[in-house]
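Re: How this chain folds, sequence and tokenised backbone to follow
How to read it: Take the token row as a discrete description of the fold.
Start of record: The labelled sequence and token lines come straight after this line.
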Amino acid sequence: MKLKYRKDLSFKRWNLLFLSGLILLLLLTGCNKNNSENHKNSEKSPITKSSFLLNTYVTVTIYDMQDEGILDECFQLIEMYETIFSRTDPNSELYKLNTKINQNEKYQISKELSLLLEKGLYYSKLSEGNFDITIEPVSSLWDFSSNPPRLPEKDEIQSAISRVDYKSVILEDQEVTFLKNGMGFDLGAIAKGYIADQVKEFLIDKGVGSAIINLGGNVLCLGSKPGGQAFKVGIQKPYADRNETIAIMELSDMSVVSSGVYERFFVKDGVSYHHILNPATGYPLDYGLISVTIISEKSVDGDGLSTTCFALGLEKGLDLINQLPNTYGVFITSDYEIHYSQGFTDAIPLLK
């Protein structure tokens, strides 16, 4: 299925929009005395906490419990994972690993890092290297946030791409070996999804049954609203001046993750450069897609698949999603058409 919408000429950063105004608890009505306690519990306001972590704004909202300590522990967990997975923090485990890689030397790593690398290598293989977590030698050359942004020299990129090859990594339990010198991991395209899943499991262990975890665009729904109604999550329209959505979905116990070319970009000499890089060329991918949104049960899968599908392009990306159970996609192409994967509208109620 495909739709088309008008391009807005303003160049605005966009990503997945969590419709906080639309997921407010629907208060029950009525005066049945047998249900008075249920009414009382359902009318409690949700508790929420936000902070700047993972280079984005993170928000966790709990709807069915009033324990602020659980929220604090969620953020402690996120901070812990950031000290493991960050590519740029000199104190992180990943940063330290990337700065000491020697060919054929074995490195002991934490269980958490090993599990995430396993997922990253899986999607690198699934995409046949179009998505490659060993792209760090290339991605470290680019800087999209500095003023001015940094566009690498061609000879720098050519040198770096020779060290990008997921097949040159051997991962066995908590031991990793590199078959080339100067390699490195960049887990930015998959780490937030993994962390969101871990926060969800933590909340479940604490007895929480209704919550939203929003890691800067990775939106993960735990259960549904108190009362059993689905949460409503929207996909923001690219280039929109306001918080306009192209679709509003009703979801329970599902994850929504988007990858888009205007999340991080800069324009130099009339050319727009975005942050989703092609491992084969070292330059931004250009397969005719503006964004890919994945709806899945696990956020780490949505993270990996959104970037993988972006790297595969529309036809191959849709073909991949159509083969996966309980997984759905929304692709927006550069001609501003919206393409839904097979079975999307049957499985996911749309309000818009």
